[in-house]
Amino acid sequence: MPEINHKTYIKVTVEDVYHTISTAQGWNAWFTDETSLEIYPDRTGEIRMRWINFGSEKVTIEDGGSILEAIPNQKFVFQWSPGEQISTVTIELKPFKDGTLVVLNESGYTHSERDIRACIGCSVGWGEALALLKVYLEHGIVYKQDLIL
């Protein structure tokens, strides 16, 4: 399967972006409802993401797994299982102009029907997620549960 690849420019520092993607408080501020996240001294850890009343079907979704790398202000890599197999999400942060270039890649999907559906959904979803992250960090606007906060 091909990888999922997205890039976006966010006009805030790499430190601000990294704090938002490497803490439970950061994820819950713009994207999830009840993320728990722990980074160990060796820069690995565990992440559990939870969305409550998600989407038009109002379902609760839980997923997560190992944090493989958490390099401050550079990279955050974790695994989760939105499909049949575990996939790996790599978020790299690069200083660019007056802000940060955020590069997201996800790999590990197979050719099973369930993985293909998950890959398509996550490809669209990560694009939306990066747009939400940008709007949150640049303007303080949060879009959750059909409400703009």
TrEMBL record:
Source species, domain of life: Bacteria
Family: Belongs to the AHA1 family.
Designated name of the protein: Activator of Hsp90 ATPase homologue 1/2-like C-terminal domain-containing protein
Domain Activator of Hsp90 ATPase homologue 1/2-like C-terminal: 12-138
Gene3D superfamilies from the UniProt entry: 3.30.530.20
SUPFAM superfamilies associated with the record: Bet v1-like (SSF55961)
Organism: Fictibacillus phosphorivorans
